[in-house]
Design goal:
2 copies of one chain form a homodimer. The first copy, chain A, contains 13 helices and 10 strands. In chain A, the strands form 2 sheets. In chain A, strands 1-2-10-7-8-9 form a 6-stranded mixed β-sheet, sandwiched between helices. Chain A has a 4-stranded parallel β-sheet with strand order 5-4-3-6, with helices on both faces. Chain A has helices spanning 8-18, 31-37, 55-64, 68-73, 82-94, 108-116, 128-142, 153-169, 184-196, 212-219, 243-250, 259-273, 279-290; strands at residues 27-28, 40-45, 75-78, 98-103, 120-124, 145-146, 175-179, 201-207, 253-257, 299-304. The first copy, chain A, has 2 domains: 8-52 and 152-320, Rossmann fold, CATH 3.40.50; 56-146, Rossmann fold (3-Layer(aba) Sandwich), CATH 3.40.50. The longest helix of chain A has 17 residues, at 153-169. At the A-B interface, α12 of A face α12 of B.
């Protein structure tokens, strides 16, 4: 294997360094979902993580690597969602300034959350180009360090700690399912499974409506989406040159699911487990249920990525019941 | 004290008898809600209980007391909600027939849940008189035993076990807040606090729109509601002659809250704790927040009564954010 991936020891050090800053989230089971899937499921509840998503792990690990000079200058990212909150809270933990570039169209509740964590918000036009330009301008003006939400090895290593904890609780998992969006969570999970699993495999769940990662695994190069019309708003982004080689090497399969399948699994998690998760978190369960014949009686970990949802815009309606 | 309330030993035996049939539900904390309330809060999560509510405890304890002849004949209740499910599941655990009278207007999802647990549903007109008449007819025809959801001592003693578990985890609570509807949960909680608390007090939270219990405590006799237009649909019922004497003796205070206060606390629990609870469960937190000046720095247990909600009919809208 040519690729220089992080070593086992480095992941253990990462986990230890994060201890004071992240929750060890609970692992929940559901008799009903076991019955329904025919497998034995272990849900790693990153919706209960600080700021409400696994993103806290990667952001925190990234700022922990900063030199004194870098800490002095601060950190920058652009985000319409969870990563902005994660960077703001991670920076706050170390007394670092956090500049968060947010599209002007971002919901007020997300801007307010970033502000609660002390993030300094700059608004920009709601395009990726505008976001990148504004972040670059801030880097130039302040000397702050730019953090990417998924395509940065420190972030990936931080993300790995969720699956490490899950494998500590359940060492005999046969599979761990995660959502796949920008690729940062699944790359970290795959590293954890590689070093700490016992004949365990990592499987991705992806919306059919934004199946760039599925196509990338087929062609062997990073593919992009022409549109991303999925309710799983955390999974609309593309893979990157840091995470894709890890995914190509360590993720044998991605299973694609429809919007109806995502919404049905989201409803199952809310109704049966009584927990609030975001639509992206329902994608791996939907993937498992879709292919449940192949996973019968297996022990399966599922990473519930986060729980920051807009309660005023839920996809549940009477007609779907 | 003239009232013959259940003894400490009887409650301990009840708890032991229920062990195989109920979950020991987790106790969750929230740094943000601690900060917001100025107190230290411990949430007892009965939304994670079997069939999704504390009602499982009382129903199970009641059927456990049945003689062989009573088991043979079965159990009857009338319910539009959680208690029907609880009785059906409790009966299923012991291989007993459960006759559940439900108003024809009950949501399909609730009927389906009762059926899942093997309950035999009889539909009737959506009035209390029709429900009682139909239940009486079944008792007469089958010899089955009628269970009341809140005004029966075995049910109250079963309900007490939630607060007993909470006090085992947190023996130094100053107060336990519960919702008050039919009175079965708060009566059980108050018994647990009386025997197992350490200078702990039980406080009720009640919707202003159905404040019969608050008025009953004032007048010293059971008052009723002329209308019950509250979102907390579990709290529309009146107290009974079994639970009211316990409440009068052991509950020093009921705090009333508006519908907006209930919805705001419901939102806080969903958004900040990432758990699904029913509107009735938000009432005690709303009561605490309303009077938070008086509870500053106190250790407070809050019983989250259940999590069976209709996801298609939530009270959250953008205008309220």
């Amino acid at each position: 294997m040519d690729l220089a991936i992080p070593q086992r020891e480095e992941l253990l050090k990462t986990q230890e360094a994060l201890l004071p800053y992240v929750h060890r989230t609970p692992v929940l089971e559901s008799a009903l979902l076991n019955e329904l899937s025919g497998a034995r499921l272990y849900f790693k509840c990153e919706n209960f993580q600080r700021m409400g998503a696994f993103k806290m792990r990667g952001a925190m690990n990234a700022v922990l690597q900063f030199s004194e000079a870098e800490k002095e200058a601060g950190v920058v990212t652009h985000s319409s969602g969870n990563f902005g909150q994660a960077v703001a809270l991670a920076a706050k933990n170390l007394g670092i300034k956090a500049f968060i570039v947010m599209p002007s169209s971002a919901p007020a509740v997300k801007k307010s959350a970033v502000r609660t964590y002390g993030g300094l918000i700059t608004e920009c036009e709601p395009t990726l180009a505008a976001r990148e330009a504004e972040a670059a301008r801030i880097v130039k003006a302040t000397g702050a360090t730019f953090l990417h939400p998924s395509n940065q090895i420190e972030v990936i290593m931080g993300n790995a700690t969720a699956a490490m904890e899950l494998l500590e609780s359940q060492p005999e998992l046969d599979f761990i399912f995660t959502p796949i969006g920008g690729g940062g969570l699944i790359a970290g999970t795959a590293l954890a499974v590689h070093y700490f699993g016992n004949e365990c495999k990592t499987i991705g769940g992806e919306p059919l409506a934004a199946d760039d990662a599925w196509r990338s695994l087929k062609t062997g190069k990073i593919e992009t989406n022409t549109n991303t019309n999925t309710i799983a708003d955390g999974l609309r982004t593309n893979l990157g040159d840091v995470n894709f080689p890890i995914i190509k090497m360590l993720v044998p399969e991605i299973i694609r699911v429809t919007e109806d399948e995502i919404i049905e699994s989201l409803r199952l998690i809310w109704e049966r487990m009584k927990i609030v998760v975001e639509p992206s978190s329902a994608v791996p369960l939907a993937a498992l249920i879709k292919e449940k014949g192949r996973f019968r009686n297996k022990k399966i970990g599922i990473i519930l990525s986060g729980g920051n949802v807009d309660l005023a815009a839920l996809p549940f309606s009477h007609s779907k019941q």
